Amino acid sequence: MLMIDAHLDLAMNALEWNRDLQLPVAAIREREAGLTDKPDRAKGVVSLPELRAANIGIVVATQIARYVERGSNLPGWHSPQQAWAQAQGQLAWYKAMEDAGQMVQLTHLQKLEQHLALWNDPAISNTQKPVGFVLSLEGADSLVNLSYLEKAHAYGLRVIGPAHYGPGRYAPGTGETGGLTPLGIELLKEMDALKMILDITHLTDEGFRQAMDLYKGPVWASHHNCRALVNHQRQLSDDQVKQLIRRGAIIGGALDAWMLVNDWQRGVSDPVTRNVSLQLLVDHFDHICQLAGNSQHICIGSDLDGMFGKEQCPYDMETIADLPSLAGMLAQRGYTTTDIENIFHGNWLRFVRNAWA
What would the DSSP string read from start to end of 149-181? Predict the structure, then answer.
């Protein structure tokens, strides 16, 4: 069954982690053996061959480059111009993957339908199929000013999440309070005019309320779980989930362990001892489905290798190629084949077809 992942930081891993994602995960881990510069070295779970093995034919792939002010302890760049340059390097990697036949950018409906026809052709091996990607900007800091939005849209940017972690030039993010900045309000207006998708992931509660009121175009939450199950501001409250459902949004379930279980301690907790399995993601899916009364508002937004690796993933997943095992878990909970198709690809496709019509 075709799968779609609504959030992967592929270019960040390729450039900042120096991973050749054309290789199998095992080869990437072998090359990183003994490295200690990052806590997840030799523990990555994502590469292009693994995506194809999972039948993940489409991903939402990010550019991400944070601006940080003096004194910040967050990783990032010291000027918006530097952040823009970093994001352009990431774009160059995606273009190089296109040149190599590894990926193909999806920017409009006709291109999407052509790509789906290729991936649904059983006569062609998955190893010969490029992974389609919709380009998203996670955190808008790298847009030096609003004129850069048009430059980005011209090269195919179709989704923006204004916030990430910490303070932001357009919106404060995870761990912060307060609403959109004046620049962020103008950003939403310009995005609306360009008919882009707004990703509300990482917004504060106040920012979420503002964005939902201000933005008239399509809205999704690319990688979010439920606050009712794991109590943290980064998660969606039931009221926020209901607002998204009313807007026809989709919510991508994320697989970072701290979003699946309460009181996770990064670098200390262990997925096995904390019993962090893929079943916990199904719990979050089920909670949203119960609020919606159907299976039409959830999808996969794994965020795998998003600055963490196997040390902070469900223990029953060796690589992203294991994601199809969710089908059996969902079936055991009473989800029908149609429900599973909705979650794996149908809901995302319906949303994007409507957004790009």
Answer: HHHHHHTTEEEEE---BS--SS---BT--S---
* Boundaries of domain holding 239: 3-356
Displacement of CA 338 from its chain's centroid (Å): 23
pLDDT tens digit sequence for 169-226: 999 999 999 999 999 999 999 999 999 999 999 999 999 999 999 999 999 999 999 9
pLDDT per residue as tens digits for the range 240-256: 999 999 999 999 999 99
- Record the tokens describing residue 126, joined without a space: 């998955």
Burial class of residue 253 in the structure, from the number of CB atoms within 10 Å of its CB (0-12 exposed, 13-18 middle, 19+ buried): buried
For 151-164, give one letter per residue: b (16+ CB within 10 A) or e: ebbeebbbbbbbbb
**What are residue 229's DSSP bridge partners?**
none
- Asked if 105 and 133 touch (Cβ cutoff 8 Å), the reply is yes
Per the structure, how many domains does the chain have?
Answer: 1
> What SS3 class is residue 42?
coil
Reduced to 3 states (helix: H, G, I; strand: E, B; else coil), residue 231 is coil
Q: Which positions ≥6 away from 184 have C-beta within 8 Å?
A: 140, 162, 168, 169, 170, 171, 207
Helix, strand or coil, per DSSP, at residue 277: coil
**236: three-class secondary structure by DSSP:** strand
User: What angle is formed at CA 99 by the lines to CA 306 and CA 54, rounded to 5 degrees?
Assistant: 45
**C-alpha to C-alpha distance for 18 and 171, rounded to whole angstroms:** 29
For tokens 């357009």, the residue is 170
C-alpha closest to that of 242 among 299, 178, 293: 293
Instruction: Return the CA Rg of the chain.
Output: 19
Residue 110 CB coordination number (10 Å): 10
Answering whether pTM is above 0.90, one says yes
Nearest CA among 134, 128, 92 for reference residue 109: 134
CATH code at position 336: 3.20.20.140
Residue 247 burial by Cβ neighbours in a 10 Å radius (0-12, 13-18, 19+) = middle
